[in-house]
Design goal:
single chain, alpha/beta, Aspartate Aminotransferase, domain 1, Aspartate Aminotransferase, domain 2, seven-stranded mixed sheet, four-stranded mixed sheet, binds pyridoxal-5'-phosphate, transaminase activity, Aminotrans_3, pyridoxal phosphate, aminotransferase, Aspartate aminotransferase family protein
Length: about 450
Amino acid sequence: MTHVFHRNPKISMKTAVSGKGIRLFDSDGKSYIDACGGAAVSCLGHGHPAVIEAIKQQLDTIAYAHTSFFTTQVAEDLADFLQQKAPGSLNHVYFVSGGSEAIETALKLARQYFVEIDQTERRHFIARRQSYHGNTLGALAIGGNVWRRQPFLPLLIESHHVSPCYAYRDQRENESEEQYASRLALELEDKILELGPSTVAAFVAETVVGATAGAVPPVKTYLEKIRAVCDKYGVLLILDEIMSGMGRTGHLFACEEDGVAPDILTIAKGLGAGYQPIGATLCTDKIYDVIVNGSGYFQHGHTYIGHATACAAALAVQKTIQEQNLLANVLQRGEQLRSELRQAFANNPHIGDIRGRGLFVGLELVQDRESKKPLDPAHKIHAKIKAQAKENGLLVYPSGGTIDGRLGDHILLAPPFTCTQEDISDIVSRLSDTVSQVL
Ligand code: PLP
């Protein structure tokens, strides 16, 4: 009997007792390679001394001060860092405690912006069918994950969905990436026209789709074309980089690679790398100025926004990434990971696609490569792989079942940015053994 509600009583769950580098250890002394950083969180691995020291120092000075009374130097410094690195004019940073809060902040920010400029009709959010944006009611409403939304449908704000950018499944034969991107942009435009352009507030998308589809990057020009459609109708573009941002793809902000800057951008997970819970919503000068020069303040807030200890952890994480030039390692090790996975699974008909950017890598499982038919969901292969991998001392983050009305089993890999060449080969070898044991 457990009193911890979020612990699944049907699954025997070991107690994690320590972590060092890419490894976690349980109370039996068994070690696990953390190849997914939980849910793409632990980008510096575990027990990082510089981050721990920064947290301790912050606790020795000021752990927390409520934002209605004070700012703290560390929150200012972290905001400066993000503002300097962020693309476009994303110069204003609203700190929160996690991903879902960052999304709620983004939705409310978009809505308040339009209220301030007297476009109060703008209330519709458009997102994509294959997406996850969090579990709070606003985030759930825009997410495409049907089964997650189902019990709460009567409570959710109205939202609308278009197709994801999912080349493996949806790009047609004889269609170039650019033509595919144009088709998706047209679909978004049609949806805006159907709803009435003056009623649409924002389009929300994950720059690289994470948990629902296993690291699916957009095809070339997709984000550019989407940006152009949004601009044409005065619709804000919100990019969710809660999973894909903060260096996971080899760029601090994933959209840098696409040469596109959104109006609002959300980050979390890798920002604090799991050392403290922290997320943030960044917005442009345009949005900030309208609100500050209008009613004067953003009608939002949580008790722990700008939490000093969380900001100290995040600042230390980000400084470490910069000082150790870890993004170069992310790009190099990511290439190695995809290449070794392709070799290891070259003759396995069930690995349909291997994809991703940087150290954000997904494998899609199928019945066979030719038909691309999904595996029978009743077999819950993704869950079996997760369990078997754990047995084999490897933590991976699978997903499966019905997402976006489609079936699909995926494995997501998101190892720490500090991974060595040997670590990557070890991950591939353990995963390869695991897949042969299960399939
Ligand atoms: N957005 C994306 C893309 C995510 O992957 C997640 C979490 O997995 C969230 C939002 C929600 O973040 P959190 O679980 O921190 O609330």
